[in-house]
Every structure is written in structure tokens, then in C-alpha cells.
Amino acid sequence: MSADGKTDRAVALTLAAGSYSSFVLILVGLAAQTLRSPYAHLISVAGVLLLLATPALRIFVAGVVFLIERDYKYTAIALVVLLIVLTSAWLGVGLH
């Protein structure tokens, strides 16, 4: 498989796993809420947080794949983009 194919596959698997996992967590949280579980809200919040973290995780995975492929230019770009995303999230949370 070509280098681009490995990167695309790793990123696609990361997005799918994050999306499906968050969907399942939110669904379980909603089901637990109908059963009046005290942890229902925490489960739902975990699902939403996972959904929000998935894009940053995707950038991280792409950077790791680029590093494994010794494509240092794109590794650096992925790292800079990840730092921008994380800094934006941190500032956004810190300002509210």
C-alpha cells in the first residue's frame, strides 16, 4: 500500500472509531437516563467529549503516520496544526 493510502486509512479509521464510539456512549447515556441511572449524564458527557476530541485525535494520528513514514515536513505541519487546535480549545474553555 502506498504511503498516502496508509495515511488515509489510518485517518479514516480514527474518524470512524471516534464517531461510532461517541454515538454508542451517547446512546447508552440516554438509555441509562430513562432508567434513572445516576451516571447517565456522565456517560452522555463522555460521548460528547469523545466526539469533540476526535478531530484532534485525527490530526495526531496523521502526524504519527507521517513520522513513521519519515515524512518530516508533514509531521511538522501536523504538529503545528495540532498545537493550533489545542491552543484554540484551551483558550476557548479558559475564556468562559
Number of strands: 0
Integer tally of domains: 1
Total of helices: 3
Low-confidence stretches: none
The amount of helix comes to over 70%
Explained architecture:
With 96 residues, this protein is mostly helical. The chain has one domain (3-94). 88% of the residues lie in helices and 0% in strands. Helix 1 (3-34) runs antiparallel to helix 2 and helix 2 runs antiparallel to helix 3. The N and C termini lie far apart (46 Å).
What brief labels describe this structure?
96 residues; single chain; mainly alpha
Can you lay out the helices and strands and say which pair or pack?
Elements: H1 3-34, H2 40-68, H3 72-94
Helix pairs in contact: 1-2, 2-3
How would you summarize this macromolecular structure in one to three sentences?
This protein is mainly alpha-helical and 96 residues long.
